[in-house]
Each structure stands twice: as structure tokens, then as C-alpha cells.
């Protein structure tokens, strides 16, 4: 998978400044480097969404995206089950179904249509 060139430096900066070190390190940590509590995480997550203008994105959406990308990258049912922490194949098959169909192409098309719509600049409305 490739990322837009502008995203790579931002991800690298976040990982260097705000995440735990190492391959298994936490991506989001508290002020002292530990696990974020539920209330603290929610407050930080909502502030990040507001700052980026992403709107109503749920944290669980990242899990769904990651598993979809893993499936489209060729992850097996067993690998998806392990990744998701599931003991049944039901959820893994959902992601593999996405990988086998045209859903990825459809999502790219929808993404392109959304990107064509320009968000109006924030500021005084002039009224």
C-alpha cells in the first residue's frame, strides 16, 4: 500500500513524538507514556478529529480500515482472525469477501467523488 507523499512525514512525526517505541509500541499514549484511559482517549480523539476536520469518524473505523487493507493485501482467514482477536471465522470472512469483490474499486470511486467536493473555508459568513 502506498500513502500520499504528504502523509508520510506526518505519520513519521507522530510516531516519533507521540507513540511508544518499537514495532509493538502503542500508537496513542498518555502524557506519561502509558495506556490512555477511556475518558482521556475520547477527549484527545475528539480534539484530533476537530483539528483535522474529519468529522464523525469513530476510532473503531481505523480497525475496520486496517483489517480491510490486510485482507486486500492477501491476509489469510487465520491471519485476520489472529489480527482481530477472534476465534470464529465469521468476521474474517467479511473482510476477505471485501478483498475478493469489487468493493475496493467502488470505495476508490466514492473517495474520488468525495474529494471533488471542496469544503467551504471556515470563517465569517459575511452576513
TrEMBL record:
<keyword id="KW-0233">DNA recombination</keyword>
<dbReference type="Pfam" id="PF00589">
    <property type="entry name" value="Phage_integrase"/>
</dbReference>
<dbReference type="InterPro" id="IPR011010">
    <property type="entry name" value="DNA_brk_join_enz"/>
</dbReference>
<protein>
    <submittedName>
        <fullName>Integrase</fullName>
    </submittedName>
</protein>
<feature type="domain" description="Tyr recombinase">
    <location>
        <begin position="1"/>
        <end position="108"/>
    </location>
</feature>
<dbReference type="InterPro" id="IPR002104">
    <property type="entry name" value="Integrase_catalytic"/>
</dbReference>
<dbReference type="InterPro" id="IPR013762">
    <property type="entry name" value="Integrase-like_cat_sf"/>
</dbReference>
Amino acid at each position: 500500500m502506498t500513502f500520499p507523499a504528504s502523509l508520510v512525514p506526518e505519520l513519521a512525526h507522530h510516531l516519533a513524538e507521540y507513540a511508544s517505541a518499537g514495532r509493538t509500541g502503542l500508537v496513542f499514549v498518555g502524557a506519561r507514556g502509558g495506556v490512555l484511559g477511556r475518558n482521556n482517549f475520547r477527549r484527545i480523539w475528539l480534539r484530533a478529529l476537530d483539528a483535522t476536520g474529519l468529522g464523525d469518524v469513530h476510532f473503531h473505523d481505523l480497525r475496520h480500515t486496517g483489517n480491510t487493507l490486510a485482507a486486500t493485501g492477501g491476509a489469510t482467514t487465520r491471519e485476520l482472525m489472529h489480527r482481530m482477536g477472534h476465534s470464529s471465522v465469521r468476521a474474517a470472512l467479511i473482510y476477505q469477501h471485501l478483498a475478493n469483490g469489487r468493493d475496493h474499486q467502488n470505495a476508490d470511486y466514492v473517495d474520488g467523488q468525495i474529494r471533488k467536493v471542496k469544503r467551504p473555508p471556515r470563517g465569517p459568513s459575511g452576513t
